[in-house]
Amino acid sequence: MFTYDVAIIGAGAGGLNTAMEAISMGKKVVLVDKYKPGGECTWAGCIPSKALIQLADEIHAAKKYANIEVDGKQIMSKVRQLIEKAHQAEAVEQLQAAGIEYIQGDAKINDQHSIRVAHETITAEKIVIATGSRALIPSIKGINQVNYLTNENVFQLEDLPNNLIVVGGGPIGVELTQAFQRLGVQVKLVEMADRILFREEKGLAQQLQGTLEEEGVQLYTSAKALEVKQANCTTTLTIDRNDVLEHIEAEQILFALGRKPNIKKIGLDDLGIRYTNKGIEVNEYNETSVRNIYAVGDVVGPYLFSHMAGFQAKQAMRHAFLEMHTPIEQHPAWCTFTHPELARTGMTENEAREKFQDKFNVYTVSYSELDRAVVDQKTTGEAKIICDQDGFIIGASILGERACELLGELQLMKTFHIPFHKLKDTIHPYPSYSEILTQLSNAAVE
Ligand SMILES: Cc1cc2nc3c(=O)[nH]c(=O)nc-3n(C[C@H](O)[C@H](O)[C@H](O)COP(=O)(O)OP(=O)(O)OC[C@H]3O[C@@H](n4cnc5c(N)ncnc54)[C@H](O)[C@@H]3O)c2cc1C
């Protein structure tokens, strides 16, 4: 009756994962995007930022031993080459080879079982909205009269600026701040809260903040951006810090202040699909308020990460086609890819205190207690594990070398409800960073 089993709007992490999940179930899939497949993650998010961070890390390490001159043009061109390389895995030909039909165009939902792309109507049993999000631009004085950077154009810069103001001390702002600073750009980081990464474990975010300052980042915390001006290749940002106005200057300004869901002009109102300014409302299976229409990824939130978009895609397709009536249990995890990395799953200590008062246990080990970290000269950092009174992990934050990879083992234990003390009987190679986990679990209550 319908041409396709599923029609997906948006070919970013959410749409691509939905398509692959549906294909693995033997379904007929059409995927539509305005541009080439990949979305924010490939073209202006995870891939270019991680490429820039890696190049900056190599330069930072080399600078310890030699006077290095950074060729900004070469760096930015390398970032774009790496984007193209990563894109190959999801290029249209690859999608077609996997059995996915790809249409380039602007799509809109038509009714419960069809979408419109240009003048064509495409019918499908299920529809998935995966239209993503875009950078939030602050409505400060002067914003419409200046040129500014966001994640959408920063990776297209031909060369590195000499100096840069970054507004926003969340994960994106902090990652880019450190990368540019390490590449020789003088960065001034402006954050409204009294510290960077204010949602993360306080002590660990403060340690990371110390590292940024040691590397030369000029930090302006508790600072509200008020006005921006541009003249003679200089951008001036006026900030308010404790009722004192300051003017800070740089060649370029970059806003990393959070994201806005792409919910406009896709037909939500016509069909009565419920949404707020945070995104489309969905149930635990990612189905919207209209049956057969699902939404996944940044357009839903609240965790704006590619892997969370992937998880939601799985949830949606299993419900749509396998009629699953128990949602897959969700254990969100993420990492800020600074050096050192800050990885996290579950609660912070403060969140645990709010929920359990003092009825939980906290285990911490510093990286300076690890032989491997000592010989690598990577002793900044700490791992903190929070367990409930029955000994199960309810939160973990790791600041340190390879933190993101170390989180995997804890994430497995948390997801499959393995008591934390069990880890002490597992053998970890010496000298490895993973030994920090056995050290932590040695203290765990059985
Ligand atoms: C600088 C930066 C670094 C990041 N780093 C990480 C990281 O390290 N790890 C991580 O997990 N996440 C990271 N993220 C977040 C990650 O990029 C997003 O969570 C992810 O891209 C969301 O995927 P999505 O499919 O929901 O949306 P998107 O990737 O935004 O894809 C949406 C797609 O929909 C298309 N579209 C929109 N409207 C229409 C329409 N009407 N018709 C047709 N097509 C349409 C768009 O063209 C786009 O291709 C980062 C983000 C940024 C900005």
From TrEMBL:
<keyword id="KW-0285">Flavoprotein</keyword>
<keyword id="KW-0560">Oxidoreductase</keyword>
<protein>
    <submittedName>
        <fullName>Mercuric reductase</fullName>
        <ecNumber>1.16.1.1</ecNumber>
        <ecNumber>1.-.-.-</ecNumber>
    </submittedName>
</protein>
<feature type="domain" description="Pyridine nucleotide-disulphide oxidoreductase dimerisation">
    <location>
        <begin position="333"/>
        <end position="439"/>
    </location>
</feature>
<feature type="disulfide bond" description="Redox-active">
    <location>
        <begin position="41"/>
        <end position="46"/>
    </location>
</feature>
<dbReference type="InterPro" id="IPR023753">
    <property type="entry name" value="FAD/NAD-binding_dom"/>
</dbReference>
<dbReference type="InterPro" id="IPR016156">
    <property type="entry name" value="FAD/NAD-linked_Rdtase_dimer_sf"/>
</dbReference>
<feature type="domain" description="FAD/NAD(P)-binding">
    <location>
        <begin position="4"/>
        <end position="307"/>
    </location>
</feature>
<dbReference type="InterPro" id="IPR001100">
    <property type="entry name" value="Pyr_nuc-diS_OxRdtase"/>
</dbReference>
<keyword id="KW-0547">Nucleotide-binding</keyword>
<feature type="binding site">
    <location>
        <position position="298"/>
    </location>
    <ligand>
        <name>FAD</name>
    </ligand>
</feature>
<feature type="binding site">
    <location>
        <begin position="131"/>
        <end position="133"/>
    </location>
    <ligand>
        <name>FAD</name>
    </ligand>
</feature>
<dbReference type="Pfam" id="PF02852">
    <property type="entry name" value="Pyr_redox_dim"/>
</dbReference>
<keyword id="KW-0520">NAD</keyword>
<dbReference type="GO" id="GO:0003955">
    <property type="term" value="F:NAD(P)H dehydrogenase (quinone) activity"/>
</dbReference>
<feature type="binding site">
    <location>
        <position position="258"/>
    </location>
    <ligand>
        <name>NAD(+)</name>
    </ligand>
</feature>
<dbReference type="InterPro" id="IPR004099">
    <property type="entry name" value="Pyr_nucl-diS_OxRdtase_dimer"/>
</dbReference>
<feature type="binding site">
    <location>
        <begin position="168"/>
        <end position="175"/>
    </location>
    <ligand>
        <name>NAD(+)</name>
    </ligand>
</feature>
<dbReference type="InterPro" id="IPR036188">
    <property type="entry name" value="FAD/NAD-bd_sf"/>
</dbReference>
<comment type="similarity">
    <text>Belongs to the class-I pyridine nucleotide-disulfide oxidoreductase family.</text>
</comment>
<dbReference type="GO" id="GO:0050660">
    <property type="term" value="F:flavin adenine dinucleotide binding"/>
</dbReference>
<dbReference type="GO" id="GO:0016152">
    <property type="term" value="F:mercury (II) reductase (NADP+) activity"/>
</dbReference>
<keyword id="KW-0274">FAD</keyword>
<dbReference type="Pfam" id="PF07992">
    <property type="entry name" value="Pyr_redox_2"/>
</dbReference>
<feature type="binding site">
    <location>
        <position position="50"/>
    </location>
    <ligand>
        <name>FAD</name>
    </ligand>
</feature>
<feature type="binding site">
    <location>
        <position position="191"/>
    </location>
    <ligand>
        <name>NAD(+)</name>
    </ligand>
</feature>
